[in-house]
Design goal:
The structure is a single chain. The longest helix has 26 residues, at about 85-110. This protein has helices at about 15-20, 40-45, 65-70, 85-110, 125-145, 160-170, 180-190, 195-200; strands at about 5, 25-30, 50-55, 60. The chain is globular and about 50 Å long. About 35% of the residues are buried. It has 8 helices and 4 strands, in the order E-H-E-H-E-E-H-H-H-H-H-H. It has about 210 residues and is of the alpha+beta class. The protein has a 4-stranded mixed beta sheet with strand order 2-1-3-4, with helices on one face. Helix 1 packs antiparallel against helix 6 (about 160-170) and helix 4 (about 85-110) packs parallel to helix 6. Strand 1 (about 5), helix 1 (about 15-20) and strand 2 (about 25-30) form a beta-alpha-beta unit.
Length: about 210
């Protein structure tokens, strides 16, 4: 059986939500992260989630690859768009932006500064700059959402499933992030979706 490996509260929540939105018969397996004995290391050599293992053992990693793959299992789903369409490219563009600018370039140094310097004295500066980068990244999204309900096509798509996670992570920071009203509006719309509620419940996040 195809299995999606996740860790509660991690970015793998996006793929978990997509599985539920699409009604796919995929097993959800919870694993620990950053522990040497976690079974995720036997699945994904990088020790990261999400990781999607197909029936034949094929492994797909990274939300930016897993989310489109999942949606393509349900042709015509409003979560994605037809191959060759501008909307599909726009959704993929946002997936790339969220993975690169929001997650890797901003949240990662904010949460794990030790990956960028072994000098503990440098960590406060790394976190401070990461927060500046994160605010800039979200201000771009805030401007885009001023006259929109969702990121692309005025409907909930894969991009919103992914973005919603990061909007909840902002609640831990507060400050200027609390002033992003369009982001807050999207977060509440995201939370209200039955599939999101189901995923949050399953991961113990409600």
């Amino acid at each position: 059986m195809t299995t999606l490996f996740i860790s509660p509260g991690a970015c793998s929540l996006a793929s978990h939500i997509a599985v539920l939105e699409l009604g796919l018969p995929i097993q959800i397996e919870k694993v620990a992260l950053r522990t040497p004995d976690s079974p995720i290391h036997a699945i994904n050599p990088l020790g990261r989630v999400p990781a999607l293992q197909l029936d034949d053992g094929t492994l797909i990693t990274e939300n930016s690859a897993i989310l489109p793959y999942l949606a393509d299992q349900v042709p015509g789903t409003p979560l994605f768009a037809p191959a060759g369409s501008a909307e599909r490219a726009q959704i993929q563009s946002w997936l790339g932006y969220l993975a690169a600018e929001v997650h890797a370039a901003s949240f990662r140094p904010l949460n794990r500064p030790e990956r960028y310097s072994a000098d503990a004295a440098a960590h406060p500066g790394i976190r401070a700059q990461a927060q500046v980068q994160l605010l800039q990244a979200f201000q771009h999204i805030e401007r885009h959402l001023q006259e929109r309900q969702w990121l692309v096509g005025e409907r909930f798509t894969l991009a919103d499933a992914y973005l919603g996670i990061f909007t909840t992570w902002l609640l831990r920071i507060g400050g200027p992030f609390a002033e992003l009203q369009a982001i807050a509006r999207l977060r509440e719309q995201w939370r209200a979706r039955p599939a999101v509620q189901q995923a949050l419940q399953a991961e113990g996040l409600l």
